[in-house]
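Structure, all two chains, one model.
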Amino acid sequence: MQMPDPDQSVLARKEAIVAGLGRILPADAVISDPAETRAYECDALTAYRCPPLAAVLPSTTEEVAAVLRFCHEQGVKVVPRGSGTSLAGGALPTADSIILGVARMNAVLETDYANRVIRVQTGRTNLSVTGAVEADDFFYAPDPSSQLACAIAGNIGMNSGGAHCLKYGVTTNNLLGVKLVTMQGEIVELGGAHLDAAGYDLLGVLCGSEGQLGVVTEATLRILRKPEGARPIMMGFDANEVAGACVSDIIKAGVLPVAIEFMDRPCIRACEAFAKAGYPDVEALLIVEVEGSEAEIEEQLAKIKEIALRHNPTELRESRSAEQSAAIWKGRKSAFGAMGQINDYMCLDGTIPVSQLPHVLRRIGEMSKEFGLDVANVFHAGDGNMHPLILFDANKPGDLERCEAFGAEILKLCVEVGGCLTGEHGVGVEKRDLMLAQYTPEDIEAQLRVKDVFDPKWLLNPAKVFPLETTETRRAA
Amino acid sequence: MEPRDEAELAGIVADAAAAGRALCIKGGGTRQELGHPVEGASLSLRGVSGITLYEPGALTLVARAGTPLDEIEAALAAEGQRLPFEPMDHRLLFGTDGAPTIGGVVAANVSGPRRVQAGACRDSLIGVRFVDGSGAVLKNGGRVMKNVTGYDLVKLMAGSHGTLGVLTEVSFKLLPAPETAATLRIAGLGDAEAVAAMSAALGSPYDVTGAAHLPAGTGDGPLTLIRLEGFEKSIAYRSAALRDQLGRFGPVEIETDATEVAARWAGLRDARAVSGGAGDIWRISVKPGDGPAARAALGPETVSHFDWGGGLIWARVPEGQDVRAALAGIPGHATLVRASAATKARLGVFQPEAPPLARIAAGLRARFDPRGILNPGRMG
């Protein structure tokens, strides 16, 4: 992974910069000891590491503003960080940057059931937002798999989604307003508790900008009343094509499940060996979950069953109880852990039009033979967000490189069939250099213009998202 | 000018940029009154039309910007699907005719009562192609509903009224159309009670897809309306459950006649209650709980109705009245939708922005349309 050379003049001024930060923040909020900054040298993409110049942990929006104003004046790059769970290296530091972590800002500021919103500081974890309202039967809908650990700040940065986004949308669809600190240190409000914001949809472009346009310290989020109940049905098929066709037919019939999960045979076998959930040994497995009252669940499941039967499933298992529901979900939920038991793996995150599913799975199978690496597939079939897991041996020289090359080919395939490079993990540094597979240089240039406006000195979260050659002149300026 | 395709359009924009000639972008011409008047050569998107891809099984539609909305809705209806956000038709309000286009819907981010449940136009929009002010053809997003590849310029384009680029193609995620729908009706509530009833409905587990209130003066008497959509049996169950829950606000009647339900919500969607008569029309967006105070602040001569559970107020006020001044202190924003050019010029159509945000907006405009030729002045 190529990163720009650190700015020697910044490195040379380390002591003065740390002292300057120390004048802005309490002593325990500035971390500059090399032993301690190592904790911030990577996020969940651990293959790439670099200790930052320093890390700061402000406690208020005003402190964040003061830090950014100082860094802007000093020409110091800033890498914002939530909980550091990015799988794309979105919070990877550079040697000449400081990490600005919002972890200490995690309060619930306002809970408003009548208006169905909650206002939180963005260091709060995703699951604990729901935790703050679930006793009153409300929840926050976006549910990334990392929701126990990931912060709302990072969710906004990456526009995170989850298994239930087919019905409830992703972060951008559930975010009503933010308090934003610009790189110049100005505090501004975008949106609010009302449903639509005035002027250009800056909130929309901020969400998913991977921490490159500003630092979000507070968020107003939409909360929803929990459904009365939910229940899954599991079905197995002899061929991926048939399972794919079944997904389409369910959607076309007007049933809108909250989740449609797809697993292929390698994944099913691995999960079964690990979780012993009683999964059948089939080519493709679908788990479809519906919500509503007991009667509504029955009605929807009956419709889904009728559609599934037209596709000759080899297995059809409708949950009748909470225990059976848990058993159906157990294997799926342990998929990533199960694969980790077998081997090292790389988890990809491409999205495809659902109609291309059989074709893409077939091509991945062929490429798997060409590269000599096994692949297991598990994904959100309702929205086409695939997570192929490529197995490799980290101790075997050359395996990682082969794995990366294979991964890039799969992502390019996703783009070729009308999809995209990343559905929910983000570009970060991981897929930065593949951006030209999806966008022309002109398309990228249009995105860079937005960065120019928000962050004219190009100091926020450097060297992410865009291929280095496309940003070179701006970074040098 | 009426280009036949994107390439021809790009040429026209490039020429106009070179000559510094302003363009007034037009779809079906039904919403030209939104925003400030634009002086410039008319550029019609009517020729850039047609559905380019429709995959019912993937809940995805791609269409060229000039495609009439009717054509799209007919194609979706044939497959039992729809645009989730229920776009408003502005013809009644402006007294215009012509065929609204999908590009116009996106340019103004037009949404209807279902916004409370399904989101706004921008929430269903997943991809755009557009020509910027220098004539460059650009794209962002695509045709898959989950996509975090680069910055989301799709959202930026929605509601930018043609000032950052001329839309040529738009992609949407769709939803199945419901088998049936019902309206729950409570008569006689005051504004505060009505908003409390709507909040109770929207905070229930019964998946409400519309919550509106017509105060006295917009019909026979105050009427609070809640919409449910879905499979027939489910509607029966949820209507009954919600009727029980809302009983404390007053007797609840349930309307199930499909034509009646559809007509009622189309009327709410198109702001029928305020559209006739003289006066200026404002669209006010606030937190639902602030709705009653906001309406009260507008004064007794105002004709208005609530949508979005109280969070959206459509108001017709005496000509020239400064609604923003009246609403000072209530968070949200007010847009002057229908008024004379003089009143629009005096009061401004859009809510003034805080200086840093105004600077960002101006910066974006300068970079996407450096010669200032795309709908100049439309957004003020």
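The two ends of chain B are 24 Å apart (CA to CA).
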